[in-house]
């Protein structure tokens, strides 16, 4: 199978097979082509070249519905549930039981209850709105929806990234039952302990090509990593040749490093995030790399108070260390967070650019005695649109009608208007074009030049290499290694990304 987008080849002549009653793990670093391969199998995108067969017959689904009718189900990394519908409706959205166009609600909830009980999700009520569930339970509902349908091939893309340990155990139990019943499964995960535990075979992709396929019993965790990233030797500082862009003397360090700390994170723990500490200096851009499910977003949410830390503290701009119990406390203390999902958590899509720009600063700058200072609000929004080169017809344009890149500019402008001390960026350029991406890079650089502390989480290593002064690597909820400019490489960071997972696996 081959897939090209214009002149870019994302999957290059890949052979892949799944047997009945098999869990076939698909491994590779970010961007290796795993999700693209699975989207072709599940009808979400077409093939540029190659062919597929299902049960020995030619198979070329024109869309996802056709693939599902043939028995191919996929649970994607991004949730595809409708939050305003209840659990039962989401479980059978494409196949609601009805007579004469009327939904049979009693039958629907009976079927939904059986689908949930199959995964031992007894605590989830079928009448509950999906939007009221946590991310982990949403993921389990999506898995239950796939298993409730006719299934010959089940594709799971990072299914445990948002699950707790107990929820993961329930999933593994169900997968074993499906294997016994003859269902073939494709399992994508960066968690090598899971792969060693449940898979029968492993196929590794690298840069859009198949490296190889092996039985799980004949490969170690270290060999999996080597297949994914290539055999590399990471030199220590002593082994590396001196370079001018690496600070190599105390005198030079004193003259170039900021002398004040923008933020100090000390021993933060929350959920999967365990005992993370780091310091970001004023004017420094600090990147956080890691694989899907490594805890990067969870770390930022905990620092910002969106998730309450079990222990640990955060100190902003030299203020007393504290633990934030709500984002409002973090904002008051000088933190700003541009979230990963701007549409769900960063913007009010049905409101104007003006409204969104002033959102984080209403009480501080744009209201008096409960009345909105509309003139000041409008002037600030206009200034931000000019400064960020936001393409729009005016500040009253509804944000939901803007392009992704311009939406992201508004999401950032909201925090620039408030003038925070520390900016947390979670995937700041995901889903936007090159022009908007470069504009955001310039903005981040300007914020750092103004003395702000910047923390960037990104799955794009080139983005981190281009913008950051230091890059820390998260693995299995822990910060395992930090690189300074001149020390890092793609191979070194990928090796560190698997470090926590290696420690979790008993390879004996």
The proportion of residues in beta strands is 15-25%
Query: Which sequence of strands runs across the widest sheet?
Result: 6-9-10-3-11-12
Structural class: alpha/beta
CATH architect. name of the domain at 3-229 = 3-Layer(aba) Sandwich
Largest sheet: 6 strands, mixed
CATH topology of the domain at 3-229: Rossmann fold
Mean pLDDT: 84
Could you explain the architecture of this structure?
This protein has 508 residues and is of the alpha/beta class. It is built from 20 helices and 23 strands. The protein has a domain at 3-229: Rossmann fold (3-Layer(aba) Sandwich). The chain has a six-stranded mixed β-sheet, with helices on both faces. Strands 17-20-21-15-22-23 form a six-stranded mixed β-sheet, with helices on both faces. A three-stranded antiparallel β-sheet has the order 14-13-16.
Task: Please give a handful of descriptors for the protein shown.
23 strands, 6-stranded mixed β-sheet, alpha/beta, 508 residues, Rossmann fold, 20 helices
Secondary structure elements and their pairing?
Elements: E1 3-5, E2 8-11, E3 23-27, H1 34-41, E4 53-54, E5 57-58, H2 64-69, E6 72-75, H3 87-91, E7 98-99, E8 102-103, H4 105-118, H5 135-147, E9 153-157, H6 165-180, E10 184-188, H7 192-198, E11 201-206, E12 209-215, H8 221-229, H9 250-256, E13 261-270, E14 273-281, E15 285-290, H10 296-304, E16 311-316, H11 327-332, E17 335-338, H12 342-346, H13 353-357, H14 362-366, E18 367-368, E19 371-372, H15 374-388, H16 404-418, E20 422-426, H17 434-449, E21 453-457, H18 461-467, E22 470-475, E23 478-484, H19 490-497, H20 499-504
Helix pairs in contact: 15-16
């Amino acid at each position: 199978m081959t897939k090209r987008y214009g002149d870019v080849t994302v999957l290059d002549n890949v052979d892949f097979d799944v047997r009945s009653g098999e869990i076939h793990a698909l491994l590779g670093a970010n961007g290796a082509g795993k999700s693209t391969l699975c989207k072709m199998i599940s009808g979400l995108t077409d093939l540029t070249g190659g062919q597929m067969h299902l049960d020995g017959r030619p198979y070329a689904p024109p869309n996802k519905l056709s693939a599902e009718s043939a028995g191919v189900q996929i649970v994607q990394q991004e949730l595809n549930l409708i939050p305003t519908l209840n659990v039962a409706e989401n479980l059978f959205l494409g196949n609601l039981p009805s007579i004469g166009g009327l939904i049979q609600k009693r039958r629907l909830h009976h079927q939904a209850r059986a689908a949930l009980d199959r995964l031992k999700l007894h605590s989830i009520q079928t009448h509950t709105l999906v939007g009221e569930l946590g991310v982990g339970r949403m993921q389990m509902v999506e898995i239950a929806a796939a298993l409730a349908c006719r299934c010959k091939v089940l594709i799971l893309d990072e299914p445990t990234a948002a699950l707790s340990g107990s929820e993961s155990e329930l999933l593994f139990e169900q997968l074993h039952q499906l294997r016994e019943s003859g269902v073939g499964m494709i399992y994508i995960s960066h968690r090598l302990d899971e792969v060693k535990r449940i898979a029968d075979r492993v196929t590794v992709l690298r840069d859009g090509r198949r490296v190889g396929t092996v039985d799980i019993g004949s490969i170690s965790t270290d060999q999996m990593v080597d297949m994914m990233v290539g055999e590399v030797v990471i030199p220590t500082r002593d082994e590396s040749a001196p370079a001018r862009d690496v600070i190599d003397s105390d005198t030079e360090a004193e003259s170039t490093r900021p002398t004040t700390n923008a933020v100090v994170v000390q021993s933060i723990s929350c959920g999967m995030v365990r005992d993370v500490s780091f310091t970001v200096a004023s004017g420094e851009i600090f990147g956080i790399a890691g694989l899907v499910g490594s805890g990067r977003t969870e770390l930022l949410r905990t620092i910002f108070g969106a998730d309450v830390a079990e222990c640990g503290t955060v100190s902003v701009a030299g203020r007393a260390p504290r633990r934030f119990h709500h984002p409002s406390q973090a904002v008051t203390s000088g933190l700003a967070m541009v979230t990963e999902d701007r549409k769900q958590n960063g913007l009010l899509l049905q409101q104007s650019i003006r409204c969104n720009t002033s959102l984080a600063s209403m009480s501080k700058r744009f209201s008096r005695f409960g009345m909105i200072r509309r003139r000041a609000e409008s002037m600030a929004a206009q200034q931000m649109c000019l400064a960020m080169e936001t393409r729009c017809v005016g500040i009253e344009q509804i944000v939901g009608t803007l392009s992704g890149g311009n939406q992201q500019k508004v999401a950032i402008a909201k925090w620039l208007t408030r003038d925070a001390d520390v900016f947390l960026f979670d995937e700041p350029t995901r889903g936007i074009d090159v022009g908007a991406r470069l504009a955001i890079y310039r903005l981040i650089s300007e914020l750092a030049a103004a003395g702000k502390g910047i923390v960037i989480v990104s799955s794009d290593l080139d983005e981190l290499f281009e913008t950051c002064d230091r890059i820390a690597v998260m693995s299995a909820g822990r910060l395992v290694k930090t690189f300074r400019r001149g020390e890092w490489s793609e191979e070194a960071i990928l090796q560190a990304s698997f470090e926590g997972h290696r420690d979790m696996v008993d390879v004996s």
